[in-house]
Amino acid sequence: MTLIRTVPAASAVPANTLVIDLDAVAANWRTLGSRSPAGVPCAAVVKADAYGLGASMVAPALYRAGCRHFFVALVDEAVALRPLLPRDARLYVLHGALPGAEAECLDAGLTPVLNSLEQLRRWQQLARRRGAVLRAALQVDTGMARLGLALSEALELDAGAIEGIEPVLWMSHLVGAENPDDPFNGEQLRRFSQLRRRWPRVPASLANSSGTFLGPDFHFELLRPGAALYGVAPTVGRPNPMRAAVQLSARMIQAHEIPAGQGVGYNHTWVAARPTRVATVSVGYADGFLRSLSNRGVLYLGGHRAPLIGRVSMDMVSVDVTDVPAELIHPDASFELLGAGQDVNALATQAGTNAYEILTSLGSRYRRVYRGDAQPGGDCPRPNAVRGVRPEESAIHGDMNPASRRAMNPH
Questions:
Q1: pLDDT of 384
Q2: Each residue of 31-78: pLDDT tens digit?
Q3: Are 196 and 157 in contact (CB under 8 A)?
Q4: CA-CA distance, 65 to 41, in Å (whole number)?
Q5: Is 111 in contact with 168 (CB distance < 8 Å)?
Q6: Which are the catalytic amino acids?
């Protein structure tokens, strides 16, 4: 595996290192796409800076792997990413174009996801001002009660009601797909299928990371995974089929012995029951190592467990290394936070949260190392190197199976 880029820390000897495996991300994308026996194309959700791992590196790597559909949350995220991807890559904005951002969204070649009648109306107004028919995705709320048109509103729409808009995708979001036995999965599928019958010629997307594992009925014309790309387990209680995409390590600052009865850290929430060797490690909640890991997290040194003792501080944690071989404890010691000993899912369990929060909380003080077997730009040319394809001409059917391509025209 080849080192392709290192983002240096301010010091030549950084305290912490975050390794992002772009090959693993690409492999996970392929694994997710392979879940569809019909060859339904697979998109990539790269919002929140690719879940904290760096969208400017992750999205081009996924493009090189074959991905052509990318979802972000905000117009600003998409505008920043647009120059890094060839023009045949479609960028969807999940929050839609917020008031005042419609022209910027259009001019940047983005596809807004329209979530309300008000967003739809503003996109129509822009279409009239520009004298053009504008493409957009539309979202319907099938139970999340978060974003999207009410199902009743969506079912009442017809071609006249969306004049000036060409719908290129209908989508919705699953509530609890990580639990395949949740009966509400089937209810959401039933509701979404009502809409699909109303608009049979418009491609549809329901399956997020976990929904991809619910079976072909949930796949429709576009898979839409996010967290699983980055190694997050998609299904509760089952083996994780995704490759770990991150490794995280932090340097030791010092080690010392304390007697039995000595407390450690703020408010002495942990007290030594025996003479204890304590190592202080240079990572804390300012780095996204969550405070909820206090007295429950685990670090590893040379494959040996080092339980976290006391509270997580802003820049430091203390760990019990009494049972770690003494020869491993030295000034250059580097503790593993994520790696062979535990992945992001295990650390999230210790923190009492989900792996999404762990990844998106990773701070800016890490030295970031990206690994992969393709150099940036190797087969992902800059946008101005791609001739003859305008962003508004890049449609989802470009990488669909023939049956899905025939169903492209709106109702």
A1: 34
A2: 999 999 999 999 999 999 999 999 999 999 999 999 999 999 999 999
A3: no
A4: 12
A5: yes
A6: 47, 266
Tell me what pLDDT residue 4 has. 52
Q: Which of 296, 357, 401 is nearest to 41 (CA)?
A: 401
State the CB neighbour count (10 A cutoff) for residue 32. 24
Instruction: Please provide the CATH number assigned to the domain covering 35-229+381-406.
Output: 3.20.20.10
CA distance 317 to 189: 46
Total length of the chain: 411
Indicate if 246-371 has the same CATH topology as 35-229+381-406: no
SS (H, E, C) the chain: CCEEEEECCCCCCCCEEEEEEHHHHHHHHHHHHCCCCCCCCECEECHHHHHCCCHHHHHHHHHHHCCCEEEECCHHHHHHHHHHCCCCCEEEECCCCCCCCHHHHHHCCCEEEECCHHHHHHHHHHHHHHCCCEEEEEEEECCCCCCCEEHHHHHHCCCCCCCCEEEEEEECCCCCCCCCCCHHHHHHHHHHHHHHHHCCCCCEECCCCCHHHHCHHHCCCCECCCHHHHCCCCCCCCCCCCCCCEEEEEEEEEEEEECCCCEECHHHCEECCCCEEEEEECCCHHHCCCHHHCCCCEEEECCEEEEEECCCCCCCEEEECCCCCHHHCCCCCEEEEECCCCCHHHHHHHHCCCHHHHHHCCCCCCEEEEECCCCCCCCCCCHHHCCCCCHHHCCHHHHCCHHHHHCCCCC
What are the residue boundaries of the structural domains of the chain, listed by start?
A: 35-229+381-406, 246-371
CATH of domain 246-371: 2.40.37.10
Average pLDDT over residues 294-302: 98
pTM above 0.85, yes or no: yes
Q: What is the mean pLDDT of residues 311-317?
A: 98
User: What is the chain's mean pLDDT, rounded?
Assistant: 90
| pLDDT of res. 14 | 62
Q: How many of the other CB atoms lie within 10 Å of CB of 381?
A: 14
Of 9, 16, 18, which Cα lies nearest the Cα of 284?
A: 16
